[in-house]
Amino acid sequence: MNTEHFKFFQNKECEYFPCHKTNDIENFNCLFCYCPLYMLKGDCGGNFIKNAGIKDCSKCLVPHSSGSYENIMNKIKEVIEKGSDF
């Protein structure tokens, strides 16, 4: 039984689809519409820039690319640990 479909979701009816420029629209994953790694700041592993002191992820495709589910699930423990600091 193949149980991999939960790792990919695409909403082509979203008014923002795709929310980032991509050459691979068919594999654009919307599952992590808001990146759960954002709070890791510079340790998120994504392609971001700092713009006037604000983290700008507009060119980052990490949560939307192939393998994004595995990548995010591997780093989610760090997010949980940061959340427990509050």
Write up this protein:
- The protein has 86 residues and is α+β, with helices and mostly antiparallel strands.
- It has a domain at 34-86.
- The chain contains 1 helix and 2 strands.
- It has a two-stranded antiparallel sheet.
- A hairpin with a 2-residue loop joins strand 1 and strand 2 (54-56).
- It is globular.
- The model has no long low-confidence stretch (mean pLDDT 90).
Secondary structure layout plus pairing:
Blueprint: E1 49-51, E2 54-56, H1 68-83
Distance between the termini: 41 Å
β-strand amount: 5-15%
Tally of helical runs? 1
Biggest sheet, strands in spatial order? Answer: 1-2
- What's the total number of strands? 2
Biggest β-sheet description: 2 strands, antiparallel
What portion of residues is helical?
10-25%
Radius of gyration: 14 Å
Low-confidence stretches: none
Which oligomeric form is depicted?
single chain
The structure class reads alpha+beta
The pLDDT mean sits at: 90
Order of helices and strands: EEH
Apparent shape: globular
Task: Spell out the key features of this protein.
86 residues; two-stranded antiparallel sheet; alpha+beta; 2 strands
